């Protein structure tokens, strides 16, 4: 326990979110953080940095509203989607009283944020979300104030059908906010719940520029919902959350030409993901490949030491413990050249396995 009397009693029980970058690995090919392989070349000129920025820069808000098919009052710009998660918990949940429902395994920041605000976790399963009936899901959600649905889900890539999200929101109307985290939605845009926002006052959609827009270093996200849902959040958000520089870059990224370029890159990455899945499914070093969407593929290794072999080759991917087993791996979809390094690694594992079989026989 902490000896600092100024710290709250529960501080020792808190666990910080373990991001891909926090693992301090070394390598030459980085496929561990679901980053885009496309590098942005940005040329900006700003001459008013002596002034405070617009808290919600209207040129960015308007462009994102157009992109999402909403109006400006339904868009809140945040410091990554992570700030949107934090604002929702802080605004809508009472500490030591309320809970949030999660479908595990899923993105770790939901739990970290709830723990930080002393809000209980109602831990449910992805199997329930995907295979359970709506009645079963609603009964399990109980009195939780927020329900987080990561769609596509990180790290499994699974996709919850829009009709099911719609049915869940209908059953939880006037009771619970259904928060659909769409960090990876550009890789399957037809599945977006943003089209439900005008119909449902209890649907909130989280978005980011970190993945398909190739701006992970910008830390820019958006919370989308009806204006009545965003109104109390606007009272809680920091007075100047968006810097002038960030707003300028985000506005450029949301121009029509830039959106067209992003969609072209997504098409390429989706094709590369399909190629990678074929390699993985054919490899004796891989026991299972999860089917899903997003700019990543998650798989179960036949031998978890294969991850260490990859590190020795300078190939950095994300090791996971899923379903109680620590031999899972998530591979981000990088460039064609980067994925060739994955193929070399897989081929080496296959040759090693063949050699061992020959020795035994």
Description:
- There is one protein chain.
- This protein is of the alpha/beta class and 361 residues long.
- Helices cover 38% and strands 18% of the residues.
- It contains 11 helices and 12 strands.
- The strands form 2 sheets. A 7-stranded mixed β-sheet has the order 2-8-7-6-5-3-4, sandwiched between helices. It has a 5-stranded mixed β-sheet with strand order 1-11-12-10-9, sandwiched between helices.
- Helix 2 packs across helix 3.
- The longest helix has 27 residues, at 256-282.
- The radius of gyration is 21 Å and the shape is globular.
- The N and C termini lie far apart (56 Å).
- 41% of the residues are buried.
- The model has no long low-confidence stretch (mean pLDDT 93).
Can you give keywords for this protein?
globular, alpha/beta, five-stranded mixed β-sheet
